[in-house]
Amino acid sequence: MNPALARWLQAPSVVVLLLWMIVPLGMTIYFSTTRYLLLYPERSGFIGWSNYEFFYTDPAFWPAIMNTLVLVGSVIFVTVVLGLALAILVDRPFKGRGFVRVLLISPFFIMPTVNALIWKNMMMNPIYGIFAVIWQFFGAEPVNWLSQMPLFSIIVMVSWQWTPFAFLIFMTSLQSQDQEQKEAATLDGAGFWAQFVTLTLPHLARPIAIVIMIQMIFHLSIFAEIFVTTGGGPGNQSTNLTFMIFMQALQGFDVGVASAGGVLAIILANIVAYFLIRAIGKNLTV
């Protein structure tokens, strides 16, 4: 095919993709430099960097940044470790393995809002939740998880839903592992941990890097679980940057400040992605 013709055929999709990205970003940057209150749109006007200053001087800003990093890092760590452990366990043949695989993958297909409602009402409710029943069975005082440990509760909810994703990627990758190497290592006297460190873990290096990258992208914007369960409280203990932007936009009716927060969130995401790619990007190379 003529290269010029190929470029012309690709041009419409490239232009649409660029507009899809550039137009929202440009509007966000524009609104971040203006005073735009939904209740008083007639008072709109250019104010420069004032929205950014107002947003990052908010007392809740740095706690929200810390909560975001703790939430993302904790969920990634838990899901990778549990997903890897489950994948190795299920990789061995046993009766009913197909059914177990389906059960382990199922939580990933639950919507985040439904996931939050399940944990809020069925698991963590301090009166009739399953955890409360277990606590009372052993004579202990039930824990009000969402009030006493809000950030930990969000980490548990998100980890429960995303562990199947890591499990699915690792389980699929283990199917392509060279079994002859494992058999040779077994004949040479290598135990489970020796084979895991020298054979399985290097084989899963690229899948682990992919899982970390994909989860980081999604977890930086966790919102539904916080909105449905803790509402960012108490005392903004579970407020992340995404929820803080929501509070400024829809609860504070301030589009300008919320847009400034969105730009700061983009900058934070790119900083995290830069260091993450440098740390694990070598595993993504062919």
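[next item in queue]
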Amino acid sequence: MKKCLIIGIILIVICMVLTIHNEFINGPVNINEITNRGLKDENRKVYLDATFVAGTITSDNDNSYYVMFGDGVQYIVYISDLEATKINRYLLDNPEASYRIEGVTKLIPSSMEEDGIKFVNEWLNTNHHHDEEEIEEGHTHNITVDEFYHYFGYVYLNVESSFNFIKLIIYISGILGLTMILYYLNSRYHLI
């Protein structure tokens, strides 16, 4: 019986160590840290505290490249249309709140430049994010490719669900550990 208790404790310790490593040591960083430094850091776990969903750049099947704001900066987020609608609804219902999105970074493909530039130009021109003199003279703002990367950085946040082997081990070791400890306690003290 003591073997059950010892194995259960070992599994709980493994669960705790992996959780600490996964969440704190190797946990996600704010995507702002990567884009502000102009890094091309791919497959890095990141998060975004989104405060506004501006719209889509491009779509494919059930997922789209959305422009979302967080920390006063715009980011590209590849996410399911269903999840983006849920986030947008939440942010509209809670204007002072933010919505945490987690994923990994991927390099923005050059094929997205044209659609991204078109989106930003339309956004700037329809939301009057340029000087009043330009509005009066009928000028429109057209960004270049370099400015596109200035707006978004070189990476986007990919929210596609991917299999996380470490989380699976955390759940299994936690459940098995608790089960073995409860089995030991029940056999020793007849709790049930």
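[queue empty]
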